[in-house]
Structures are given as C-alpha cells and as structure tokens.
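This protein record is not my work; I was only asked to verify it. Take the sequence as given and treat only the tokens as open to question. I have pasted the whole thing underneath without changing anything:
***
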Amino acid sequence: MTTELTGRTAIITGASRGIGLAIGQRLAQAGANVVLTSRDQQSADAAAAQIDGDALGVAAHVAEDDAAQRCVDLTLERFGSIDILVNNAGTNPAFGPLIDQDHGRFAKIFDVNLWGPLLWTSCAVKSWMGEHGGAVVNTASIGGMSSAPLMGMYNATKAALIHLTKQLVLELSPGVRVNAICPGVVRTKLAEVLWQEHEQALSTTMPLGRIGEPVDVADAVAFLVSDAASWITGQTLVVDGGQILGDATGFRAGHGG
C-alpha cells in the first residue's frame, strides 16, 4: 500500500498557512484534489495558488454552520466527492491561567477547536461520506494528553477532541475512518509563543533535537488518509519528535549525545 491519493478530494480547514497549508500541499503531491478554507477569500485564494495541483480556496469560518455546508456543497459541485476531511483549524485566545478566563474566550476556543471539527464532520458525512465512505483526521495536540502552564483551556479543547475522535469512530463505522494527530511544538504562527524566543534551548531538550516543521505533520496526515492506513481508526498519532517523553539531555550523557 502507498499514500497514493489520485482521484480523491480533500477538504482541509484552517489551511491558509502553517500545518494546514502543508497538509494541502502534501495531499496534492499524492494526487488529491484539495479544498483549502480560511476566514477570508483572499487568504484562501492565496493558499490555493501555492498548491501544485487542482485546488480550490473557500472563505469559511470554521464554527459557522452555513459556511461549513456551503464549502461542502462547493466541493461536491467542483470535484464530485469528499473522500478526506482534515479538521485542522484551531485557535487559542485563552492563553493564561484557567481562573483568569472569561466566558467569551471559553466559548470562542471551544467553538473553533471542538465544535468546528464536529460540525464539518457532520456536514461531510451527511453529504457524502455516510454513503461512500471516507477518512477524517482531527488535529489535536500533545497538550491534550498532558498539562502545561498557561495552556489549560487550549489543552482542554484538545483532550475533548481526542475523545470526540474516538466517539465518532464508533458512530461512523465501518465506512468512515476517524483518527487524530497530536503535534508537539511546530514552527507555526499559532505556536510562536512556545518556541520563538528559545528555539535552540527547546530543541536541545527534545529526543530528535529540533522542533517540528509543518511538513512533518503533513506527512503523518497523508499516511492516515491513505489506503496504507486502511485498518487504522480511532488512533491518536503523536508527531512531536519525542517531546512528550520529557527532557532528553540527561539521558544522552551516557553515550556522548
């Protein structure tokens, strides 16, 4: 089995830059038609222009019902199928201690990070995948598997997304596979606060010696949506260079690493 995707169509939310754009580029390289969403049409069009293949940019706020259905309808009109859905859009307006958050930030982060994936999966399944099958990948985070200072609200949404992924597997089986990816620190604008001022120091602590690049995550997604992963569903694939295991520096001493 390979990650060949010729003839298939993928929707990637939050795809104007970073991980989402890299996923679009990687799936297009594998032969898929790709639909990239962003909050405004100009950004969506700019992302589509960076795809080497058949691509469509669609303006859609990930948490709005009408926008999701419109994108699904446009995708079917243009390409005739929705074989792959990557729920990548995410936000973090709630950086800081949990007790300092307000309901506005709580509602926004859960709307985008949790309701969005459920909404888009629902639209894709009801419009196409429920009858024809498909593969869904939700972008979670290693934060959803642990705790970290100032990231409590964001991590709560990602923990909930991991659970939602498993629930959807059972509800949508056997025709639709649903998996989650959990990136560690990746070189994106959303994650700048986690690496920008101390990238070298952070990289030194990581087992693989560097922070992630968007393509690292994109390669994992390409595998999960392909036939090479046809018997994989309900899994949470950690893509973090070993970061979740902790500081590696002390362990390297014995072999001069």
